[in-house]
Design brief:
Helix content: 25-40%
CATH architecture: 3-Layer(aba) Sandwich
Shape: globular
Number of strands: 9
Number of domains: 1
Distance between the termini: 55 Å
Largest sheet: 5 strands, mixed
CATH class: Alpha Beta
CATH topology: Glutaredoxin
Structural class: alpha/beta
Amino acid sequence: MSATATAAELVTEKVVTFAKVGKPAPDFDLPSTKNMETLAENVKLSDYKGKWLVLLFYPLDFTFVCPTELTAFSDRIEELNGIGAEVLGISTDSVHSHRAWVKTPRDKNGIEGLAYPLASDVGGRLAAKYNILVEESNIALRGLFIINPEGVLQYSVVHDLNIGRSVDETLRVLQGLQTGGLCAADWTPGQENLKV
């Protein structure tokens, strides 16, 4: 196989496997912190069948903006669970790094008490499928993706590394998606959908 053919195949593979809103979300089976003691329990997309899933890709453990985001979502997990949603954090760090970070107190830049698992995408393959992998440093941009109970990607927002995401906006979008109707700009839960 020539180098040109290999490059063409890679481009074709990327086009086919990129996540797209309105299409089935890329499948995954990743090491995780679901079992903090053994780290032997992987997390899969199929684990969330029948539930809404918020995927939170973040750059690295033990950084500065990341713990503020992850703990903000953790602190409001009851609200998210209350509307049928689960959260999964993902970075290219190892599960061992994840576990160390989860065991580190919050006042020491840790995320102790995190209420949802973290998954390890060490090679960046899943981040690449979501088109958020920074290849030179093998880290993910801040990508937030909402997947519906049938496994279809419904929402995608990507931030640069220095901007954190909003739990309020995520809740608003989730509830808007759950109405199944048309939501006007600045729609808030409790408002009617647009009539057509």
